[in-house]
Amino acid sequence: MKQYRTVIKTNKFPQLTRRVFTTADGLKSDNITAMRFDNNGVLFVGTDKGLARFDGEKFSPVAIGVKDAAISMIYFNSENHMFVGVGNSMLEFNGKKKISEKQFGSKLVDIKVDLDGAAWILTESVLYKLGENGYDIEIGVPGKGSCLAVYKNNKVYVGTAGGGLHALVGKRWHWSELMEGVTGILSNTITCLYMDPVGSIWVGTDKGVCVYDDNSYWLDHSKIVGLPDAHITGMAIAENGDKYFSTTTGLIHQHNGRLSYYGYKRWLPSPNATGVAISPDGSVCVSTDKGISLFETKMMSLREKANELRAQTEKYNVRYGYVIDRDLEHEGVLSADEGHILASDNEGLWTGLYTAALCFEYACTKDPEVRKDAHRSLLAMIKLTEITGIEGFFARAIRYSDAVDYGTGARHEWHITKDAEGRECEWLGETSSDEVVGHFYCYANYFDLVADDEEKKLIADTVKKILDHIINNNFHLVDTDGLPTTWANWDPDLLNNDHKWIYEKGTNSLQMLTFLKIGYHITGDEKYEKLFVEFAGKKHFAMNLMQYKIPDGHLLHIDDNHDFLMISLLMKYTDDPNLRSIFAMGLTHHWEDEKVERNAFFNFVYGAVTGEWYNADDCIDELMDMPMDQIMWPLYNSYRKDLKWDMAPAELGMPPQLYEPLPAHERRITSNDSNRFTVDSGVEDVAQEIFKKSDEPTAYTMFPGTGNDKGLVLKSCTNFTHPYWYARYYGLIEDCE
């Protein structure tokens, strides 16, 4: 049968980043009331305590002659004169000089220029059209004016706060009222308006966006996809037609008819986005009641992204050669002068995957700095196998007395000793199968792609000790107390006959066959190959692999990660086509269950191993969409009405989750062993506050999630660099250089 090997050639893409600014960065207040970019792309921000100008790094105050002025509006004309609304006054500036001031009967709301070149001014109570000698039109607004849209030939619409939408019509100017329940408008609370090139009116309301053809035809989210269903607070349109909507729960971006969500707190300092503005270069600024977020894009290749992320990891996530999470002292603050790397239960696994990514990178680039970092972490991995004093039994983690977490944790599993240099340290036991997977995955890839003869001998000696320990202890890891550790069990009698191991049966069979193949490949010792043949046949492990994954409703993800790591190596080192065919049965069954996750690494493994179609576009989308910011921020998505909920987990006492995961920029930063189907983390207090303010008490009742993220943990880059360099090495990606 024909095989399909999909190769993706990637170009540079616009990588999105965001910067948050508050009073600490020069804003007069965190409560943003108006925003506008001038004709040169300079951002001006109005607050309830004054006006500020952005220089690209920080804000500085702009003197307008009014102390602590509450800014209601900012506008720039074609000559780049700035018009500022302060109470009932409109101040005009040419540069720093005020050149005019006009008084009105109520607060200034907006200024728009129509396609005929006429300027319209809206206050909360009156609409004005400027003429050569004053106002050509001056007409009261029925209700409290909130927004304005103009077209040509005096086609004008005014939105009000609770009084509906009003069209200016007639030989004798008057208002035609468009009200909820009588027309197709969603609500009488109008928050923003936009007139598109064909004259249709986009209406933002507290119940979503609707589009009106200026006659009798209305569209909204109940009729078509691509229109937001949210409390809209502002709207901005980019030159390419993309639309951005600020809402009380974040920012929504409409691109090619699809909606993307940028929420609290990865993207915005507050869920309550109050407005949005777009610069001439395409940068997007979102105001909130707690500061602003500036969204910027940078053209970047996937390799450049990998390099930047790895540089960050090397700076902040490496301790003693181990690559693990960094705890931050202050929310979102990355600094070498604060924060700590604390011991992990799985330092071998995470360091092993990071090192494997370096191996793939080195195989592609031959960069000596990459090799240097890989060698450092390889030695750290091997140190875990030496520190315990039990040949072949290795530690989960190691730490020295200078670590802030030294002496903490479950003391019966931490063991104080001295390393080979005589330094006091402590190591963590109760080592699990996770760690063995990480070690063998690291050693195999380093041996094949990086190692010189001396390193190969060191790796072979280490692998032999670990495998012999497992074999000599009836296929378990045995701790200092003489007892098998909890999860490190590959005993065929238990796996095949004890139903308490039914969920581990396939996974652990896969692990053991892979360990034996790696052992034979690296050491050349025939006993490992003989055991492989025995376990594959007499012990039924090959049959166990025909369908090693027991579908679990996408609730348990740790073994999924182990399985794809191990199957990638088992297939690599198995030459017998009949055995490969059997193992491929299990891989295909597993991938068919997992492909809904759109996991780049899982997809790449399936494509590289089988040569079959593997959802290549999903892989590239994930790599491009993944945020550069690897901090574990609070996350809030469950308010969204577009989500499709899987309630089955609730029957097991677990939170509901989605049928399909959100895009990478909308969900938590996750490792391959984490749940991609959750939507919230660390936001119960925020969600409850929104719930209290909601007019629909049932709208925000779900707060499912498995984390308590507060912006205080920095993940390593392995979730990006590992799948990327794996795909590069196996020829699935051809990246622009």
Concise overview:
With 737 residues, this protein is an alpha+beta fold. 29% of the residues lie in helices and 28% in strands. About 1% of the residues have low confidence.
Describe what you observe in this structure.
The chain has 737 residues and is an alpha+beta fold. Among the domains are: 17-300, YVTN repeat-like/Quinoprotein amine dehydrogenase (Methylamine Dehydrogenase, Chain H); 632-695 and 702-709, no CATH class. Helices cover 29% and strands 28% of the residues. The protein is built from 15 helices and 42 strands. The strands form 13 sheets. A four-stranded antiparallel beta sheet has the order 2-29-28-27. Helix 7 (502-523) runs antiparallel to helix 8. The longest helix has 22 residues, at 502-523. It is elongated, with a radius of gyration of 31 Å. Mean pLDDT is 93; it is low at 696-703.
Notable traits:
four-stranded antiparallel beta sheet; alpha+beta; 29% helix; 737 residues
Write the layout of secondary structure elements.
Blueprint: E1 8-10, E2 13-21, E3 32-37, E4 43-47, E5 50-54, E6 59-62, E7 71-76, E8 82-86, E9 89-94, E10 97-103, E11 108-113, E12 119-123, E13 126-131, E14 134-140, E15 145-150, E16 156-160, E17 165-169, E18 174-178, E19 190-195, E20 201-205, E21 208-212, E22 218-220, E23 232-237, E24 243-247, E25 250-255, E26 258-262, E27 273-278, E28 284-288, E29 291-300, H1 302-316, E30 318-319, E31 322-323, E32 326-327, E33 340-341, H2 347-365, H3 368-386, E34 397-400, E35 414-418, E36 424-428, H4 433-449, H5 453-472, E37 476-478, E38 484-489, H6 492-497, H7 502-523, H8 526-537, H9 541-544, H10 558-573, H11 577-594, H12 600-610, H13 616-625, E39 645-646, E40 657-658, H14 684-693, E41 713-714, H15 718-729, E42 733-735
Parallel strand pairs: 1-42
Antiparallel strand pairs: 2-29, 3-4, 4-5, 5-6, 7-8, 8-9, 9-10, 11-12, 12-13, 13-14, 15-16, 16-17, 17-18, 19-20, 20-21, 21-22, 23-24, 24-25, 25-26, 27-28, 28-29, 30-31, 32-33, 32-41, 34-36, 35-36, 37-38, 39-40
Helix pairs in contact: 1-15, 2-3, 2-4, 2-15, 4-7, 4-10, 5-7, 7-8, 7-10, 10-11, 10-12, 11-12, 12-13, 12-15
